[in-house]
């Protein structure tokens, strides 16, 4: 840290960082306390949307004003994290839906698609399975 | 004065992020199913990244950004591979 | 020109991102960024079918503003639910029909809905153009469908016709 820091800047950066951390912490506590997987999937997005955004904003403010030039690194990280987290969450949610439907235990909406037959009659008899190219 | 404010707020936020990592870690250990663990692992990556950013402010150096970027990249690829594995049973089809 | 630059917008974005990561705009960095911006879209051509482009930049900015407001609102709402000693949100699945069929528009909508803490995009069925959404604190399903339609889908339909 540097010595001659203006008061308003330190308050602004502090507020952003503390608020962002509080949101992230709430999200991770949600990960522990929420009862089902589909509820828990909402929890980490707090850390990647507003929580992470505020912390990175505080960092960008601090470095831009103390170094006298605009610092973009945080923006790159923010864009990357906010774009990639939904992708991973969607993949994970789809995998979970798939697994839940196979197991058939918990209350999950049924699949849109009709399940493909495992084997046709002819394949059952001959034992030869024709693989479809797709 | 302003330095003290920044110092203590950074301390508080690092404490909170540390607690958040512990919470995610608890979910990784306790499960109960594979997808819960992977979700918590993804959250752990993100919190670790944010912790590094606050560390960067504290030490007034920008070296930590490179590491944060690396964590973001590796976390994404890792979680996608794991989710794919849950779906199909193999990573590369 | 089109053969060398299949996605001009993507090339420009890559160049800007490269310069951002290097934290400088020297000649060497610009050259390297230009090389990256040329090669990556060429390599991505089999994956990205149609031309990446923005029809209405102003509408995209408006969408960004809407999303920003919703992210803040949704974060506060979920935060308040999680603060209570025994969080009991009324979760629910919603199935809704979308008019939007452009792949990039759908991808954008999926990212928006998942990035906002209150909702998560689960699955999309191309044949029926139906999407399955999970909502954290569901009060009225029809109201949710209406919100998604008016706030996001109408704008996305204009941006990606």
From TrEMBL, chain A:
Pfam families: PhaG_MnhG_YufB (PF03334). One of its GO terms (molecular function) is sodium:proton antiporter activity. Keywords: Membrane, Transmembrane, Transmembrane helix. The chain crosses the membrane at residues 6-32, 44-63, 75-93. InterPro entries: PhaG_MnhG_YufB. This is Multicomponent K+:H+ antiporter subunit G.
Automatic annotation (TrEMBL), chain B:
Pfam families: MrpF_PhaF (PF04066). It is a multi-pass membrane protein. One of its GO terms (molecular function) is sodium:proton antiporter activity. It comes from the Bacteria. GO terms for cellular component: plasma membrane. Its main location: membrane. This is Multisubunit potassium/proton antiporter, PhaF subunit (TC 2.A.63.1.1).
From TrEMBL, chain C:
The chain crosses the membrane at residues 61-83, 104-122. Keywords: Cell membrane, Membrane, Transmembrane, Transmembrane helix. It is found in: Cell membrane. One of its GO terms (molecular function) is monoatomic cation transmembrane transporter activity. InterPro entries: Cation_antiport_E (IPR002758). One of its GO terms (cellular component) is plasma membrane. It is a multi-pass membrane protein. The keyword Cell membrane applies. Its main location: membrane. Belongs to the CPA3 antiporters (TC 2.A.63) subunit E family. This is Multicomponent K+:H+ antiporter subunit E.
């Amino acid at each position: 840290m540097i010595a001659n820091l203006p008061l308003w800047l330190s308050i602004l950066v502090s507020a952003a960082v503390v608020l962002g951390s509080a949101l992230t912490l709430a999200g991770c506590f949600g990960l522990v306390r929420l009862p089902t997987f589909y509820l828990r999937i909402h929890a980490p997005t707090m850390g990647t949307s507003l929580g992470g955004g505020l912390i990175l904003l505080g960092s960008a403010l601090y470095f831009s004003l103390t170094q006298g030039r605009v610092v973009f690194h945080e923006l790159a990280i923010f864009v990357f994290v906010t774009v990639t987290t939904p992708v991973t969450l969607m993949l994970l949610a789809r995998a979970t839906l798939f697994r839940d439907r196979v197991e058939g235990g918990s209350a999950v909406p049924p699949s849109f698609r009709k399940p493909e037959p495992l084997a046709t009659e002819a394949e059952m008899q001959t034992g030869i399975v024709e693989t479809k190219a797709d | 004065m302003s330095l003290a404010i920044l110092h203590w707020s950074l301390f508080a936020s690092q404490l909170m992020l540390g607690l958040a990592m512990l919470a995610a870690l608890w979910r990784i250990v306790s499960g109960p199913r594979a997808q819960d663990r992977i979700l918590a692992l993804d959250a752990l990556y993100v919190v670790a990244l944010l912790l590094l950013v606050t560390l960067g402010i504290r030490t007034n150096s920008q070296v930590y950004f490179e590491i944060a970027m690396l964590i973001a990249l590796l976390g994404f690829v890792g979680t996608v591979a794991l989710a794919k594995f849950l779906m199909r049973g193999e990573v590369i089809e | 020109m089109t053969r060398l630059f299949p996605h001009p917008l993507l090339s420009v974005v890559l160049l800007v991102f490269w310069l951002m990561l290097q934290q400088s705009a020297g000649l060497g960095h610009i050259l390297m960024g230009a090389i990256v911006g040329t090669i990556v879209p060429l390599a991505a051509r089999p994956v990205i079918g149609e031309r990446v482009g923005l029809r209405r930049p102003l509408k995209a900015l408006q969408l960004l503003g809407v999303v920003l407001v919703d992210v803040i609102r949704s974060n506060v709402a979920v935060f308040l639910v999680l603060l209570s000693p025994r969080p009991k949100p009324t979760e629910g699945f919603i199935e809704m029909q979308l008019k939007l069929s452009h792949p990039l528009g759908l991808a954008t909508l999926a990212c928006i809905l998942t990035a906002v803490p209150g909702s998560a995009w689960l699955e999309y069925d191309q044949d029926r153009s139906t999407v399955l959404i999970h909502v954290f604190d569901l009060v009225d399903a029809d109201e949710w469908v209406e919100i998604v339609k008016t706030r996001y889908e109408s704008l996305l339909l204009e941006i990606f016709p």
